[in-house]
Structures are given as structure tokens and as C-alpha cells.
TrEMBL record:
Keyword entries, A-Z: Chaperone, Cytoplasm, Disulfide bond, Redox-active center, Zinc
Residues in coiled coil: none
Gene Ontology MF, one: protein folding chaperone
InterPro entries hit by this protein: Heat_shock_Hsp33, Heat_shock_Hsp33_C, Heat_shock_Hsp33_N, Hsp33_helix_hairpin_bin_dom_sf
Any GO CC annotation of this UniProt entry: cytoplasm
GO biological process, one term: protein refolding
Species in which this protein is naturally found: OM182 bacterium BACL3 MAG-120507-bin80
Superkingdom, natural source: Bacteria
A Pfam cross-reference name: HSP33
UniProt-recorded name of the protein: HSP33
NCBIfam families in UniProt: PRK00114.1
């Protein structure tokens, strides 16, 4: 039986080629239940999540990779994150109808997507890439092909029950078999969405590459996570400023904030609000006499 919620790496021993596989199941179900999405919008959210899991594993960083798109199209917002602790989260907001034939730029109302790499102890690195093609596999492959990156291919499939994906990447160095990359990609292109979703990785690799020597590494379990907390929500209120928060408090009776990633609800009454801003005043540095 296929293992659920896992990411797994593999290498071609005789060629400078590596691969990565991902399957999202229960973690995806949690995101689907909160998204309110269906159809192509849901598919794009799943594709983006799978792609970030595949990328964070190949980067071998301690941190996270975030893909973000904001625009004026029917799918005006998409944000997904995968980290080195094998945790994922993602949201998308649909505000209009996505019709057949729309490409990514039309769906999002934007010409670009942003990838942010956050490494612990370092400044975030951000890359901006064009939204090319009809899906995120197209867009990411175009990005890798045109930005002096390693040759990389993606195979992604998504429905309401599962997201699965596979990545192949050509590593630096001279290959003894110069046709190996093209041959491996051509074989991988025979992989169907149904096979990618349902079959065990070992059987997929054997069916595609049984004439190759492949090293399969241990799988890593994946889970949904959210980093929100009452303390972080209070810090967000500080950025709004006390006058604006008090105005909401006067109009609504309390300040309510719902996390878009996990739907956790935080409520602040008048006493809570005063405590948030009082705590902030106490930690402000004072003047030191010399």
C-alpha cells in the first residue's frame, strides 16, 4: 500500500540526476477543509504545495520555501510554505470565476510569482519569476530553464483527496552517458496522473527506470502546521496602532482575528487590548543616563 503524507528522495547512481517524490493526504485534507476552494483553484493550490515540498528537500536548508502570488484575477491570492521540519501550510483566495482556457497570468491577474527562501540565521533570499503556462509545473520549469539554474522537471497531480508530485533534477558535472538526462525525462513523461497518485514510489521507479541503478532514501513524514499564536496576533495588533484598534473595539465590542491558514479564532476584549499595548510600552527601551 502507498505510504501517506511522505516525501522521499532518490538518486541515479550512474548519472548526475536526482529525484524527489511527495504525497500529501491527511495534511492536504486539512487544508482543503479550510480552503473553500474547488476545481482549478484547488488544483493550483495543491500543485504549489507539492512543488515547494519537492524544492525544500532538494535545497537541503534548515528553514523554509514560500511561493506567493498576488494579483487582480479571479484567484487573487495564493501563499504556500514548506519547511525543513517536513511541515506544510497554504491558502488561496478566489474572488471570481476561473474559465476554461485561462493561463496562470489570467487566473491570478499577475505576471509574476515570488519564491522566498528563508534559511535560519540568514537574510531571506527572494526570487521573482514570470507566471508562464497553464500550471505551476510549466511556470517552475520555465523559471529553472531561464535563470541559470539546474535543469529541473516537475510532474504534479491534484484532486480533493490527494496531491502527488515528482521532481527530476540534473546535477552539475559531466555525465558519462550524455543522453541520460533526455532519456530519463522521456521515460518520466510516460507517468500518468493516476499512477503518480496511487502507486507506491518503488513500483513507479521500477516501471519507469528498471534498467537504471537507483538509490532510494528513507521517507520523511509530512504534516500540516500553523505558526499562529495569541502572542503573534497581539503583535499584529501593535502594527495597526492603538487608535485604529480602539476604533474597532468601540464599533464591534471586541477585536476578532481569524488565522487564514488554520482558521484559529482569537478574540481580544478591552482588557486584552490594554494589556497588549501596556506590555509593548514596558519593553520599549528607556533613556540611559551616563
Amino acid at each position: 500500500m502507498k505510504s501517506l503524507d511522505q516525501s522521499q528522495r532518490f538518486l541515479f547512481d550512474r548519472h548526475p540526476i536526482r529525484g524527489q517524490y511527495v504525497s500529501l493526504d491527511e495534511s492536504w485534507a486539512r487544508i482543503v477543509s479550510q480552503s473553500g476552494l474547488e476545481g482549478r483553484a484547488l488544483t493550483l493550490l495543491g500543485e504549489a504545495l507539492a512543488a515547494m515540498v519537492l524544492l525544500v528537500d532538494t535545497l537541503k536548508i534548515k528553514g523554509s520555501v514560500i511561493l506567493q502570488v498576488r494579483g487582480s484575477g479571479p484567484l487573487g491570492l495564493l501563499v504556500v510554505e514548506a519547511n525543513s521540519e517536513n511541515q506544510i501550510r497554504g491558502i488561496a483566495r478566489q474572488v471570481g470565476e476561473i474559465t476554461d482556457g485561462m493561463d496562470l497570468a489570467q487566473i491570478f491577474g499577475s505576471e509574476y510569482f515570488v519564491i522566498t527562501i528563508k534559511t535560519d540565521g540568514a537574510e531571506p533570499h527572494q526570487g521573482i519569476a514570470p507566471l508562464q503556462g497553464a500550471n505551476f509545473a510549466d511556470a517552475l520549469e520555465h523559471y529553472f530553464a531561464t535563470s541559470d539554474q539546474l535543469a529541473t522537471r516537475f510532474w504534479l497531480t491534484c484532486d480533493k483527496d490527494n496531491v502527488s508530485g515528482m521532481l527530476l533534477q540534473k546535477l552539475p558535472g559531466k555525465a558519462a552517458d550524455e543522453d541520460a538526462w533526455n532519456r530519463v525525462v522521456m521515460l518520466a513523461d510516460t507517468l500518468s496522473a493516476q499512477e503518480l497518485k496511487l502507486a507506491e514510489l518503488e513500483s513507479v521507479l521500477y516501471r519507469l527506470f528498471h534498467q537504471e541503478e537507483i538509490r532510494l532514501f528513507d521517507s520523511n513524514p509530512l504534516e500540516f502546521y500553523c505558526s499562529c499564536s495569541r502572542e503573534r496576533t497581539g503583535a499584529m495588533l501593535l502594527t495597526l496602532g492603538k487608535p485604529e484598534v480602539l476604533e474597532v473595539l468601540e464599533q464591534e465590542g471586541d477585536v476578532s482575528v481569524t488565522c487564514e491558514f488554520c482558521n484559529q479564532h482569537y478574540r481580544f476584549d478591552s482588557i486584552d487590548v490594554e494589556q497588549v499595548f501596556l506590555s509593548s510600552d514596558k519593553i520599549k527601551p528607556g533613556v540611559t543616563a551616563h
